[in-house]
Design goal:
heterodimer; A: alpha+beta; five-stranded antiparallel sheet; 5 helices; 8 strands; about 40% helix; about 25% strand; B: mainly alpha; about 90% helix
Chain lengths: ~200, ~80
């Protein structure tokens, strides 16, 4: 199970956080013959705080209105029924915006491992996004780490890739099965530059 | 008594105008935000085409439309 070679050959799940050879996915600077070996997103558990916030925001009107009535603050004495309805519509519009943003932030923060390089699509907020590349032959060290109770329980963590490229370090944050990711990166690295007789490839 | 009612009436009107102003401001920000989300999805859809890309683009377009409609609704009806 933990060996990436045991995973299904191709991933058809568009929401996958650990997708070997994802179907229907490509990227704009993909070279001819370059194949995506692994697509990674942050573990789904990292979305739990946003989901809890959304649930709380959803429930606030149901809780706040009766509490207001209970303490003697009658909203219906100040606003008409239509106005209260419009305020509720606005509240849920903001909620939908929050959910949409949380989702695309998770969905588009993608790490790719191809048979030539590692690619980091960094979606850093609503007006900023950055893409970084490092060729596999530039990879010098790969260090997976799983720290904390939830990370150990759900088996996710960071993979830190040291490179000899312009950007010295690539961090894959909170990805599922970081040890398998590191192993796969090293496997691909070996394929790009097979070990020499002295065994000093990496 | 009629004086108290009159004061309360004008107080409520002020409150309504205040709430309307805040709502309009928030909805304008929300409209800008929805445009940015739409553009980001468009850009990321080009940089990283995925099977979910068209659906996300559709949802973000609907969201921009609804954000604009609610803004007009608040300006016109509230």
């Amino acid at each position: 199970m933990d060996n990436p070679t045991d995973t299904p050959k191709r991933s058809y799940n568009p929401f996958a956080m650990f997708a070997p050879q994802p179907v229907g996915v490509s990227f704009d600077e993909q070279d001819e013959g370059e194949e995506i070996v692994l697509l990674l997103r942050a573990h789904i558990v990292t979305l739990v705080p946003a989901v809890l916030e959304a649930i709380v925001m959803f429930a606030i009107p149901f809780v706040a209105l009766p509490i207001g009535t209970f303490i003697g603050f009658h909203l219906e004495n100040i606003f008409s029924g239509t106005q209260i309805l419009i305020m509720l519509v606005c509240w849920y519009l903001f909620l939908v915006g929050f959910i949409l943003y949380s989702f695309i932030y998770w969905y588009f923060n993608v790490y790719l491992l191809t048979n030539e390089r590692v690619v980091d699509f960094d979606f850093q907020g609503i007006v900023q996004q950055k893409t970084s590349y490092a060729y596999l032959r530039q990879v010098q060290d790969v260090a997976p780490s799983i720290v904390g109770f939830f990370a150990t329980f759900f088996h996710f963590g960071d993979v830190i890739i040291e490179t000899a490229g312009e950007r010295p370090e690539f961090d894959f944050f909170s990805v599922a099965r970081p040890d398998d990711v590191a192993r796969e990166i090293l496997d691909q690295r070996k394929r790009v530059e097979p070990e020499g007789p002295s065994g000093d490839s990496l | 008594m009629p004086l108290e009612k009159t004061t309360q009436f004008f107080g409520n009107i002020n409150m309504t105008i205040g709430v309307k102003a805040i709502l309009v401001l928030l909805l304008v920000f929300n409209l800008v935000f929805s445009f940015l989300v739409f553009r980001q999805i468009q850009i990321m859809g080009k940089k990283l085409p995925t099977p979910l890309g068209p659906l996300l683009r559709f949802i973000s377009t609907i969201y921009v439309g609804v954000a604009a409609a609610v803004l007009l609704l608040v300006v016109g009806v509230f």
